Amino acid sequence: MNREALRAETLDILQEIVPDLEPERLDSKASFRDQFEIDSIDYLNFVLTLEKKLGITIPEVDYPRLSSLDGCLAYLEAKTGG
Fold first, then answer.
1. Which chain regions cross the lipid bilayer (predicted)?
2. Per-residue pLDDT tens for 13-43?
3. Domains plus CATH for the chain?
């Protein structure tokens, strides 16, 4: 997947967890938790949904790398060969 496809998929998944998400107002460098005040269960659901939709495995040790949009995209590009 290329970066734009990964971005779109990531934002779709985030919108499932944060229905009032406004993608144009998202700070790509800031933590999702800080921006949306999601709890640990929401964050876990986000990671698990990424795994399912992208057909990848994300080790728990890598979860912090997915905490912002920029970090998430960099990680997913490397993981999917994008």
1. none
2. 999 998 888 888 899 999 998 898 889 999 9
3. 3-80 (1.10.1200.10)
